[in-house]
Amino acid sequence: MFDLIKRYWKTITRPSAYYSLGFLTLGGFVAGVVFWGAFNTALELTNTETFCTGCHEMRDNVYQELQTTIHFTNRSGVRAKCSDCHVPHNWTTKIARKMQASKEVWGKIFGTISTREKFLDKRLELAQHEWARFKANDSLECRNCHDYGSMDFTRQSPRAAEMHSTYLANKEKTCIDCHKGIAHHLPDVAKAKEQ
């Protein structure tokens, strides 16, 4: 095995006897484009609802809750999928979020939330992580669809119009401060106050 690795290393480190530098450069460029395309395709496949609900933990818990909310079924027919709220849209933060999500694979392997009871026990902790993430990025994923500048306050309830115009305009609060539980059931927040 070591001899095989040694032989390959010698082959790739010595100058090419058969191919020109231009051919090798072009070949490297083409290989890079193919790799980049494959990488982005795989990345986008992990953003599909089918992928997210592929494990029973998500399909049987949070996805069931999402189906009863306005983000799933509404009069306009616009529907948010998992990645719209849980994966940033710009590339660098998307990659960072995907790396953070690798912990979820670890949890899947070890059955951290493999049953409804385990999920409910971890629900507060999971929600607090998401709320902190939304707070830290000024609810960026919410703002990808809901634009403050496009809000028609005359079509909102008086209370909502007052809150939106007061807190969002002055950047005192962000969406998640008031809209926890908008797409999923709220955890038992009394437990948070006890801790």
Give a description of the structure.
This protein has 195 residues and is mainly α. It has two domains: 21-138; 146-181, no CATH class. It is 63% helix and 0% strand. The chain has helices at 2-13, 21-45, 49-52, 56-66, 82-86, 91-110, 116-136, 140-143, 158-168, 175-178, 190-194. The model has no long low-confidence stretch (mean pLDDT 87).
Number of domains: 2
Low-pLDDT residue intervals, each spanning 5 or more residues? none
Shape: elongated
In total, the number of strands is 0
Radius of gyration: 24 Å
Compressed to H and E, one letter per element, the order equals HHHHHHHHHHH
- State the share of residues found in helices, binned by percent: 55-70%
What topology emerges from the helices and strands here?
Elements: H1 2-13, H2 21-45, H3 49-52, H4 56-66, H5 82-86, H6 91-110, H7 116-136, H8 140-143, H9 158-168, H10 175-178, H11 190-194
